[in-house]
Design goal:
single chain, 314 residues, mainly beta, 15-stranded parallel beta sheet, 2 helices
Amino acid sequence: MNASLRMTALLSLPLITAIVQAENTLYGTNAGINLTGDFNTLIGENAGQSGTSANYNTMIGNNAGGTTSTQYSDDAVLIGLEAGYSTTSGADATMLGTRAGKNSNQTDNTFLGFEAGLTNTSGYDLTYLGSGAGYSAAERHNNTFVGYHAGYYVSYNKNTAIGSEAMRGTSPSADTHASTAIGYRSAYGLGSGDGNTTIGESAGADLNDGAYNTFVGARAGEKSQDTNSDGSSYIYESSTFVGALAGVDTSDGAYSNIFLGAAAGSGNQTGDHNVAIGAFADFGSWDLTEVEIEAVFTAESGGSTGATVQDASP
């Protein structure tokens, strides 16, 4: 056969298209049973069992990414019992820990720890690190919670909590927005108050719905709250306390105070629009001995400081 005939014969051959599924690693009963995607590692009973055309996923653990009704998305890392259990469209998700992100359906979330982000459904751009971190934040975005139960009840956006029980909240309706809490139990009881910054152990621990406050220092503004002693509502806002124990006993809805220095303004409880600058300014207990003063600073969070409380209203 001459060259022209051979060429004609080759051109007349039917076009054959080969479809080849790239390598997947599957181990466990029903692991990846419906999988058609490529480059996945699914290990554990029911791991990724309902996924279809997903790619580049790693799911390790009983029911990890397991019982979604549709396919899960690409580039997910789900490790732990029921981690990412109901994930459907959670691309670029990382969930490590028992039931971490179990109900999450959105992208770019990182949940590390036992039941971290457990109830999140459509929230996105979230980072929760720690057991129970962001536990009840169901449909929020741009929150970062690091520490045991950090942001546990927070149900709104753009918050940062770092520390054990920082910004924990006292109920699932803690809908604070754009607040920052750093330190053990910092802003522990924050509710719907927005724009707060608390740094230090138990700083602003009782803020509740107070807003636009800045408390820096161990126990600074610890007892600040937005209700009066008679139970009436009073918005606590716009105060600045800097220093260990600064404004520690200020409560009853007192607002717009500035206390700068260790224990500054610690003698104020109900006064508004006060300025105290310097260590022990407006301390209210000058008759304390050095030992008693030391006891003030080492007292357990939530306990009495031993300082005399007085009304510092002008």
